[in-house]
Specification:
This protein is mostly helical and 107 residues long. The chain contains five helices and no strands.
């Protein structure tokens, strides 16, 4: 549940970062090109942030969950900004890391 919340925050931050005019993304996927302009991408990222916050509050309670949601949001923002220039953000890499973390969380 925590791993899924972190993934939701990560995807929300990537969608929010996609709407920036300052960030150049040379090999941007077609889906992100379509979501680059407009409010839909920002609204979708807000929904993902809300779902991630809901998962955190369900896992840890209201106060601790809100605090954890803020910390995870800051962590995922820093991770996206750090990994973005090196082109480490690929769907395959994210899926492998997510499945590994989910396996470790369940076991």
């Amino acid at each position: 549940m925590i791993t899924t919340g972190c993934l939701l925050f990560f995807m929300g931050f990537i969608l929010w970062m996609n709407t920036s005019k300052r960030i150049s993304w040379p090999d941007k996927p077609v889906v992100f090109i379509q979501l680059q302009h407009g409010r839909f991408s920002k609204m979708l990222s807000i929904v993902l942030f809300a779902l991630g916050t809901g998962l955190c509050t369900a896992a840890w309670g209201f106060g601790s969950g809100l605090f954890a949601a803020i910390v995870i949001l800051m962590m995922m923002g820093g991770l996206c900004v750090l990994c973005f220039p090196f082109s480490w953000i690929r769907i395959r890499y994210i899926a492998v890391v997510y499945l590994l973390c989910l396996f470790l969380e369940v076991v």
